[in-house]
Specification:
The longest helix has about 35 residues. The protein has a four-stranded mixed β-sheet with strand order 2-1-3-4, with no helix packed on it. The chain has three domains: about 160 residues, no CATH class; about 100 residues, no CATH class; about 55 residues. The N terminus and C terminus are likely disordered. The protein is built from 15 helices and four strands.
């Protein structure tokens, strides 16, 4: 199949304002630079020395409870999270709350580990939307937010994304267990139950095997298998999310990119060829439609690209997930899990109240020491009664005014 010209890149785009940087605010982070009670970063020179010398394109940012920020230029793995001693990895997100930076890969690996933990994602609950999963979802969010810091503006959407990713990894984990251990042609049901995986709870394994033996589950598996075989437009991004791909493209091109451009790159091989003839034909048709709009309007807007994507690509391949407007409009924030979150104004107000309480306690301690000193120096004077009378006079005058 011949390589086609990159016509989408040659089309003029309407200039758009840059998106606001995510560093403006992160959830659960406060500016308390002068508070000695907040934990600072540990001495991680030893940690950095043990890391490989590979220098990535972008650093990993880590922030500690006292607000101090450090950057790790070397390699950073999910196993290093436990060595941060209170520090959190900062994760940038897009407008949909989806992580879109290098740190997202570390988060993804951590979510995969969560999906395989019996205490956080148990296997004896048949469905993710079961009410029994509610407390486990809350534990998952708590675990993640103890290790990662996200922008406040989209924190609820990010929480929903986290739960959806864990759900997908949880289902993939069950599929892997079934493929490896549930071989009915070779072993009896008792042998399968007794031969449980070493990392799976015995009670949960027995319940999971029982689900697999039910007729409704068998029918669903048959449908899913048939649909997987019918998938013809596979992408080439592998483990890299389309949100990260979009962010990389925007950094590279110094402008915002649209769904059509992301979809094109996601279905193009390293040699420049498209994955299928159908993908190439759709890109060709999209380019022709954009050329017509450009001739009529003189320029192309983001709305033009979205219209062409919906009229040409979406109608033919029915893209889901990241490319589906309906998907984002129907996002269930945190999937029914209730989180009591604070707005930015509430956080600042709470900080001011705490600061005033600390100052009041400090002044109270100083006043007590001063009274003790004065009582010893002038034992004949009754400072306590005089101060109480003065305070009462002040309250009277204040009330009268």
């Amino acid at each position: 199949m011949a390589t086609r010209p990159r016509r989408l890149r040659n089309l003029n785009h309407e200039e758009e304002d840059d998106a606001e940087p995510f560093q403006e605010g992160h959830e659960n982070l406060t500016d308390n630079e002068n508070d000695d009670n907040f934990q600072g970063p540990p001495d991680i020179d030893g940690l950095l020395a043990r890391m490989p010398r590979h220098q990535p394109r972008s650093p990993i940012k880590i922030i500690w409870p006292n607000g101090e920020l450090r950057q790790v230029l070397g390699d950073f793995r999910v196993s290093n999270l436990l060595e941060l001693q209170g520090g959190k990895k900062m994760v940038g997100t897009d407008e949909n709350g989806v992580p879109n930076e290098r740190s997202a890969s570390i988060l993804g690996q951590h979510l995969e580990q969560i999906a395989e933990k019996p205490s956080l994602a148990p296997l004896h609950i048949q469905r993710w939307d079961n009410d029994l999963f509610k407390t486990h979802k809350e534990k998952i969010i708590k675990d993640v937010e103890e290790k990662f810091a996200f922008p406040r503006q989209t924190i609820q959407l990010t929480r929903d994304w986290i739960l959806r990713i864990v759900n997908n990894r949880w289902r993939a984990y069950k599929s892997k267990l079934k493929k490896q251990y549930f071989n009915r042609e070779e072993r009896s049901l008792d042998e399968i139950i007794k031969g449980k995986p070493p990392t799976v709870n015995e009670h949960q394994w027995r319940a999971l095997v029982g689900f697999w033996c039910q007729e409704p589950h068998k029918k669903i598996c048959a449908i899913n298998s048939r649909c997987a075989k019918e998938q013809k437009n596979t992408h080439t991004t592998r483990r890299k999310s389309h949100a990260r791909l979009k962010k990389h493209m925007e950094d590279e091109r110094k402008r915002k990119v649209n769904r059509l451009e992301v979809w094109e790159v996601a279905h193009k091989k390293k040699n420049g060829r498209y994955t299928t003839d159908k993908v190439e034909a759709l890109i060709e048709m999209s380019s022709d439609e954009l050329e017509k709009k450009k001739q009529n309007n003189g320029t192309l807007s983001a709305q033009d690209f979205n219209e062409v994507f919906n009229e040409v690509v979406a109608k033919e391949v029915k893209p889901r997930g990241y490319y589906d407007d309906k998907y984002w409009s129907q996002v269930r924030v945190s999937q029914g899990v209730t989180f009591v979150t604070q707005t930015e104004e509430e956080i600042r107000y709470k900080e001011k109240v705490n600061a005033m309480d600390n100052k009041t306690q400090h002044m109270s301690g100083l006043m007590k020491r001063w009274l003790v000193f004065m009582s010893k120096k002038f034992p004949q004077e009754d400072f306590f009664d005089e101060m109480e009378a003065a305070l009462q006079d002040d309250e009277f005058l204040a009330g009268g005014s």
